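We modelled each protein-ligand pair independently. The example shown here corresponds to the flavin-adenine dinucleotide entry; the chain sequence is given first, followed by the ligand as SMILES.
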Amino acid sequence: MNASKYLIVGSSHAALEAARAIRMQDDAGSITLISRDTHAPYSPTVLPYVVSGRSSADRVSLRTPDYFQAEAINRVTGQALTRLLPAEQAVELEDGQRWHYEKLLLATGATPVIPPVPGLDRIDYRVLRTLDDAIALRDAAGKAANAVVLGAGLVGMHGAENLAEAGIAVSVVEMQSQVLPGYFDAQAAELIRAAFDRQGVTMKMGRRAQRVEPQADGCRVHLDNGEVLNADLLLVGTGVRPVTDYCQGSGLDLDQGILVDDHMATNLPNIWAAGDVAQARDFYSDAKVVTGILPDAVEQGRIAGMAMVEDPALQPYRGGVPINTYTFYGQQAISVGISDTADTAAQVAVDFDAERGYFQKIILKDGRLQGISAINAALDPGILWQLILRRTDLSEVKAEFLAQPLETGRRLMSDTWR
Ligand SMILES: Cc1cc2nc3c(=O)[nH]c(=O)nc-3n(C[C@H](O)[C@H](O)[C@H](O)COP(=O)(O)OP(=O)(O)OC[C@H]3O[C@@H](n4cnc5c(N)ncnc54)[C@H](O)[C@@H]3O)c2cc1C
């Protein structure tokens, strides 16, 4: 049987960060990264740029082959993990090979959720999660005239903009009443939707795809109001779910993702999980959540690696705070922390100017920043993210912060970092 002291499944943000943390403490122990992907590691966040052609598929890697050689990290690619065998401290891959581990990290991320729309299983639709998906979408876009995008989340909105810019007639179908739910409130989302409208993208809000009918040159999408949309390209961007199918029968505690403690340890000995696959402490509540965002994957990967190597500097995970920057048609939107609240104890300050396309919303509670979302406002999302994560007390500078969040935030953080 193959063996590796540290076995890491996945080769994206969480996996790479864990490998780095392990090597900092153990320069000799064998590390093996197993991935079902055949490409050099890359970030899924660059995929929209591969579709648009702004980045070429061979120039998006997070690490070069030299890095793995220099760090003595072994890679197994094009092989999916299919079974965990915890009693034997081993895993099984799709071709039947087995790997024994001393410490195992599951960093298998997330995969697109395909909604149960009748007929969809008979369509050659596209998704956007892997580099191969992006290459296939780019190639399909080169031949398409009409596209339908299911879902107005980040994947759907990036996809719709890219396809429209390639000269394709695009319709977006979203069952909720606004775009980018979770990232922006209804007022901000309306500014974004209107920008797409002005660019000729047809936005079907509050509508469901009821069934999809294959055609010789694509498909027809039937909506719940009786409308029918013709598409020679169908992009499904209706969310993601953690990749956990290999956990069946292993005894690993699962909920929406793999449940972990504050050191990213699972309920089974010598097995950790990190990134989009893990369900960990929430920053805002006592619940455990799957956050599905890049900075969390990095942070959780780092903590898991430190725990696996028993690094004495290890600090417990404090929960993840979302941070997103989203550019659409040259306009800049940011969303850090929560974008909406039903909490009557929270203070919410909104500044909105539809004509200028300007929006800024600040949510404070007990003198602490809970979230900020904005469109076309000069803000530094990294600073705001730090203020939330550190639960910085803003009580004494509240008025100043509400009037000038950029300058006040910078001053506070430079005092903290000094
Ligand atoms: C288009 C797009 C835009 C995004 N934009 C943002 C953004 O603006 N901000 C943000 O915070 N986040 C964004 N994200 C999300 C971000 O990319 C993820 O949070 C991050 O990549 C999670 O990293 P991860 O290492 O946990 O998992 P992933 O990046 O999902 O990687 C999982 C790894 O596991 C491997 N794998 C999966 N299953 C198996 C298996 N069974 N066996 C072996 N290997 C397996 C995969 O090949 C891959 O290497 C975006 C995602 C997409 C797709």
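The mean pLDDT is 95.
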